[in-house]
Amino acid sequence: MSTQASKLEALMDAQQRPAGATRVVAITSGKGGVGKSTLSANIAYVLARKGFKVGIMDADIGLANLDVMFNVRAEKNILHVLKAEATFEEIILPLEENLWLIPGESGDEILKFSDATIVSRFIDEAQMLENLDFLIIDTGAGIGDTIQMFLKAADDVVVVTIPDPAAITDAYAMVKVVSRIKNDILMIINQVKSAKEGLKIFDTIKKVALGNIGDHLELKLLGSVRSDPYVARSVKQRVLVCKELSNIAPAGDIEAIAKALGDKKEHKMLEGQKESGIGIFFKKLLGQF
After folding, report:
1. Global pTM?
2. Superfamily assignment of 21-285 in CATH?
3. Which listed residue, of 25, 116, 124, 130, carries a Cα 20 to 30 Å from 199's Cα?
4. pLDDT below 50 — which residues of the chain?
């Protein structure tokens, strides 16, 4: 087992990628209780296991809980960096090989920083994250202004829902809001009985969205994740399904979703397309871009 210092060195001392190599993926939902954080954690783990360098940032404002899910203790978080009370190196928690947690702040104070000097220093410190291939953002649920700022700053937005009428309605409301800032939106249908059910729910949402929002919207199904009682147990036991229960159906479904994200990134690289990168992401988030 590597020490925390050596794992941080693995991030900072990796062969320098060009600026803008990090793809920022925000995972969100219209309502709580749809498994968004569980999916975020497992997708990040699978991407890391596939060899990508992955950071996962807890932006579930009001309920920052990824440290609990990964069974680690976060002494300080990103707000301490903004306040110059800690460095990025001090707050980042190595979780697995190629996987690091950036602890969030249970409140919206992070977005109140607009002083150019503070933001500039913060962006300079964030450069240590430029070696990441992916930054997965676990946002809060709903369509509040704070959440929208994270979604606007990200490269990809993934909306998660489940086969529940209220959740589906809220997911459509989220798609409608996101469509004002993004033309491309991805979806995951969680806790389905079958892939067929997931596709049916997605098709219903897409039909309504295209009819009311317009055909400029590119709404795509990233994947469906089948329901299994072991998933709920894994959350209570603070273990990752894709690590400890890799033989069950949901783990395979999440594997396929992570592969799709990895393939999408590599396809863009082959085409010479750049991601926005860590620096641009935080500048957008803090209102400096």
Report:
1. 0.90
2. P-loop containing nucleotide triphosphate hydrolases (3.40.50.300)
3. 25
4. 1-2
